[in-house]
Amino acid sequence: MRTDASIVWGMAGTFGVLGVVFGVLGVVYSPVALGVAVPFGLAGAVFYLHASGRLAELAYRKRRVSREQYEREQRRQSRQRRGRASGRSRERNRGRAGRTSRDRQTAGGVAASGPRREDYRVLGVEPGASSEAVQAAYREKARELHPDRGGDAEEFARVNEAYERLKDD
């Protein structure tokens, strides 16, 4: 990963220097060189913003999401691209089509009965919490992790399954 960052820093420096050189040439010799200096300077600025990480900050500020949500979405999209590129995503999901959430809870063919400690942990409530507390925690987690709002789909599914088990009891 270090080589990618050093390449971007090198490009930022190169375009920045070219922008300055053509800018000076434009002032000293010909204004036509200023027309060349502007694109080089802009390219250098964009590469600098990217290498320093400020470009990502501007992107998530523009979308009005938190940095954590932005980074979570980027990781999810990266995983999706890797899965599509390797062709494994279709193979992984092929067997899931007809299964219900109860089927996914089975371990070795034995269905899990009732809520587990992990369900309480996923929702962030104490074991034995009231149904109102469970519902309030579920709504808060669902709002935070919903894929339409930049959340992770796997975590959202985990929260839904935990809530389904806890609300039945």
TrEMBL record:
Region (Disordered): 66-156
Basic and acidic residues biased stretches: 66-76, 88-105, 138-156
Domain J: residue ranges: 118-169
InterPro entries assigned: Diphthamide-biosynth_chaperone, DnaJ_domain, J_dom_sf
Transmembrane segments: 7-30, 36-56
Keywords: Membrane, Transmembrane, Transmembrane helix
Basic residues composition-biased segments: 77-87
PROSITE patterns: DNAJ_2
Protein name, UniProt field: DnaJ N-terminal domain protein
Taxonomic source organism: Halobacterium hubeiense
Taxonomic lineage from the root: Archaea, Methanobacteriati, Methanobacteriota, Stenosarchaea group, Halobacteria
